């Protein structure tokens, strides 16, 4: 297989993984919030509208403070990160945008970027979040 074919396969697999992970993440966030921290590495970081949370436990505590949500994913893009930047670990950058509605609030556009790394799990490799950056889109007036 040529290097070009290998890169194309990597991009295709990253795209598929990004879509599957995004569906899992937002379904867990909306319906099983108490389990969402299981998708993060122990030392992961979350930036939520400019506010930092470091460590799986702190991220979990923050998510518990949020109202019930309903998320509508509108777009997902995922790209593999070159091995030489991540010490050969399988890593993907996933960018998501959509609409989220928190209970008692109006619907809001958002974007979120996940840096994922493959980790060995009981049933093979699983994606874990290394870093997560969430931002509401504010309307300019």
Automatic annotation (TrEMBL):
Mainly localized where? cytoplasm
Q: Which residues form the NTF2 domain?
A: 17-136
Q: Where is it located?
A: Cytoplasm; Nucleus
Identify one Pfam family in the record.
Answer: NTF2
Superkingdom classification of source: Eukaryota
Instruction: Look up the record and give one Gene Ontology term from the biological process aspect.
Output: protein transport
Key words, A-Z: Cytoplasm, Nucleus, Protein transport, Transport
- Keyword NAD among UniProt keywords: no
Asked if the Swiss-Prot or TrEMBL record annotates the protein with the keyword RNA-binding, the reply is no
What this protein is reported to do is described as:
Has a role in nuclear-cytoplasmic transport of proteins and mRNAs.
What this protein is called in its record is: NTF2-related export protein
Gene source species: Caerostris darwini
């Amino acid at each position: 297989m040529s290097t070009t074919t290998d890169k194309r396969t990597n991009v295709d697999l990253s795209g598929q993984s990004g879509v599957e992970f995004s569906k899992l993440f937002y379904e867990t966030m909306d319906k099983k919030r108490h389990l969402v921290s299981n998708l993060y590495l122990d030392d992961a970081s979350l930036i939520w509208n400019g506010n930092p949370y470091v460590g799986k436990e702190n991220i979990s505590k923050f998510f518990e403070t949020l109202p019930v949500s309903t998320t509508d994913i509108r777009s997902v893009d995922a790209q593999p990160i070159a091995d030489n930047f991540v010490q050969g670990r399988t890593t993907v950058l996933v960018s998501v945008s959509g609409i989220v509605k928190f209970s008692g609030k109006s619907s809001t556009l958002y974007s979120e970027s996940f840096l994922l790394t493959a980790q060995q799990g009981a049933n093979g490799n699983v994606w874990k979040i290394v870093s997560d950056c969430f931002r509401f889109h504010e309307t300019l007036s």
